């Protein structure tokens, strides 16, 4: 399998994301992209986080960039009328997410890092992260679709396609699909160690991606699982060609971040997920108390070994010079 260490060095912005020791340059702001015009809907369980149409998103990110927020992760929110059992809408080239990536690339060139979420759950009518066959999530029917989604994001201009699905073997297939189509400089951020966690609730509201039946425990990792499985998942993804490895959620798995980061040779990211964000927002009433809490949290991520931090707190932290 092709391992391309140059992918993380390709632009100054990518180098800043993975190689700087400062907290500021490693922060990634998530966004939820919807269809329409002038849409700016706050997510009830995540104060300060919005579903935005492309026009509003571009203006939001332009403002973010003025505050030095250079890393942006985009999640598609797909209209329910377009959902089907195979997530077909996720790899249509002129969907809002792909359009947003194209416009951002035009406006900002290589000065920002654009990461895009690759999964089926926002585009399937049943809300699962894979194709259902004989009542189970069928791994090998799902991964070719994931690679199509990744290719569609790469064509739009994503720096990193971020596979959040937890199917086996998808990093290899995505890497092959990118290589075969001339996108050898597009990186893969793999959610390698993703637990079947109760901390994703608010996100599922934000992305309208709750499973309509069952849960995600046949593919996401058991919360009781120990280090060997985490290390297996991370090292497998590195061997398959992942450029950044993600561990998720963050708070309750910092020990895993530490163990995995000792074992692997690629940058490690943590996802400070929606439930963690909502907890902090509920526990703080003013900016100063939030500043202290978030500072303590981000330093714990760094201490555990995280190079990259995906967090909904990014905007407030950067706008107010918390670090
Ligand atoms: C999609 C995906 C999820 C998150 C990121 N990508 C939800 C899930 O797996 O159910 C969660 C992010 C968050 O909670 O902030 N597979």
Structural summary, described in words:
The structure is a single chain. The protein has about 325 residues and is an alpha/beta fold. It has a single domain, classed as Aldolase class I (TIM Barrel). Helices cover about 40% and strands about 20% of the residues. The chain contains 12 helices and 12 strands. The strands form 2 sheets. An 8-stranded parallel beta barrel has the order 1-4-5-8-9-10-11-12, surrounded by 8 helices. Strands 6-7 form a two-stranded antiparallel sheet. α3 runs parallel beside α4, α4 packs parallel to α5 and α9 runs parallel beside α11. It is globular. The N and C termini lie far apart (about 40 Å). The structure holds ligand PBG. The site of ligand PBG has 13 residues, from α7. Ligand PBG binds next to α7.
In round numbers, the mean pLDDT is 96
In CATH, the architecture is Alpha-Beta Barrel
Helical coverage, percent range = 40-55%
Number of domains: 1
Poorly predicted regions are none
* Helix segment tally: 12
What CATH calls the topology is TIM Barrel
Keywords:
12 helices; 323 residues; 19% strand; two-stranded antiparallel sheet; globular; binds ligand PBG; TIM Barrel; alpha/beta; 12 strands; single chain
